Amino acid sequence: MNGSYQSCTIKRTRRTIDDLQEILTACQSIIQEEGSVSLRHLFYRIVSLGLIDKNETEYQKLSGYSMKWRRNGSIAWDSFVDTARYYHGVRTYSGLSDALENSKDCYRRNLWQSQHVYVEIWTEKEAIAAIAQQAAEPFGVPVFPMKGFGSGSALHSIAQMIKWQQKYGKEVFVYHLGDHDPSGRCIDESTVRNLREDHGVTFHFKRIAVNPEQIKQYNLLTRPTKKTDSRARNFEGESVEVDALAPHVIRQLVENSISQHINTAAWEREKEIEEMERETFDLISWKYKQGDFDE
Q1: Is the whole-model pTM more than 0.85?
Q2: In which order are the strands placed within the sheet that holds 171-177?
Q3: Consecutive H or E run containing 209
Q4: How far apart are alpha carbons 215 and 294 in whole angstroms?
Q5: Could you read off the pLDDT of 216-237 as tens digits, one per residue?
Q6: Contact, 220 vs 45, CB < 8 A?
């Protein structure tokens, strides 16, 4: 199938039960393959299979289908990534023992403290951040969803973090996933320039998606570039959303970007210390339950 698309001029008839079952089966297969997806990712995959057209109306229909299928149990509720925070409040505990158990479960040693670098992952969109985080979290690497052009306050916070890391001798590397379109490419340049000019911060920056070679490699769906975009003057070719990349590809890009910087020997030493510290939590919890804090 050709990766590009045009607005569909064919008026589709109402989908039959067999049509919907085919789409459902494809959705189930994709979710089983990926583990979890965003609705936009799922949409692109179903479009690439030729089961639906690539337009906003079809996207909304798929959204409705997916909700129906989750309600009837055809698709699990947790099949879709979601970065929304639904609860705000203070975490409470039933007692000190409960708090100690939670502390053990939540404890993560900074495995990067003996590394000579600091790494961050940036994404243009919240949904992509959720996918990237699945690969970054085991390494303890932060993911920052820029949601377009970062606000002045957000960039100030980023600058402070970079300066703090550099103060302690860390070489800073940032890897970015964004759309291949005039605005997406401009976000890269604008963010790096603003951090340099407004905050005096310089660092290593690399876009890891979407790049022209990936469009060919994965036969990504393209869309016509908006000529009304003031940034389109020097942009060549059609546009591609980062959502067109399969989640497992995004996770692999993130993992490769991070792992290349790790000194394995130092990393393993930190992990051994972390395990011993977890055992200390067990000892403290045991002593509390025994009512013995004297030793």
Answers
A1: no
A2: 143-145, 117-123, 171-177, 204-209
A3: strand 204-209
A4: 64
A5: 999 999 888 887 776 777 787 8
A6: no
Q: How far apart are CA 207 and CA 162, in angstroms?
A: 18
| Preceding peptide of 210 cis, ω within 30° | yes
pLDDT in tens, 58-111: 999 999 999 999 999 999 998 988 766 666 788 888 888 888 888 888 889 999
Determine the 3-state secondary structure of 134 from DSSP: helix
DSSP 208: E
Tell me how far apart the alpha carbons of residues 221 and 219 are, in angstroms, rounded to a whole number: 7
DSSP output for 137-163: GGGT--EEE--SSPPHHHHHHHHHHHH
Collapsing DSSP states into helix, strand and coil, what is residue 239?
strand
Q: Which residues are bridge partners to 119 per DSSP?
A: 173
∠ CA(218), CA(224), CA(226), 5° rounding?
130
Asked if residues 111 and 136 have their Cβ atoms less than 8 Å apart, the reply is no
Q: Which one, of 119, 111, 120, 110, lies nearest residue 261 by Cα?
A: 119
DSSP H helical segments within 72-168, as ranges?
Answer: 96-106, 126-136, 152-167
**Could you give the CA distance from residue 1 to residue 222 in angstroms, rounded to a whole number?**
12
